[in-house]
Amino acid sequence: xxxxxxxxxxxxxxxxxxxxxxxxxxxxxxxxxxxxxxxxxxxxxxxxxxxxxxxxxxxxxxxxxxxxxxxxxxxxxxxxxxxxxxxxxxxxxxxxxxxxxxxxxxxxxx
Length: 110
Description:
With 110 residues, the protein is of the alpha+beta class. It is 13% helix and 31% strand.
C-alpha cells in the first residue's frame, strides 16, 4: 500500500521531478514552491487546519520539532525539539513515557 500527493503547477513554477509510472500525467512529484514567490507560514497552517477540519479530523497545533503520526492502533510521538513534550491523553506505552524528552520518541496504543 502506498500514498502520494500530486501537485498541479502553473507554468511559472519550476518542477524538479515527475512520477515515472505515467499515472500522474504532468503533475509534479516535487517542485520548488518558492520559484513563484514566498510562502506565508500562517496562511499555510490555516489552510491545512481548515482542510483537516473539513475532513472531520481534529487538528492540533504542536510545538516546533514535535511530530505525531498514527498507524492503526499505535501512535508515534517524535520530539526533535529542544524542550520536553508532554502527551495529553496517552494510552498504554510500548516505548517511552508520557513526557517525551528532547530528541526522544514514545509509542503508545490508543
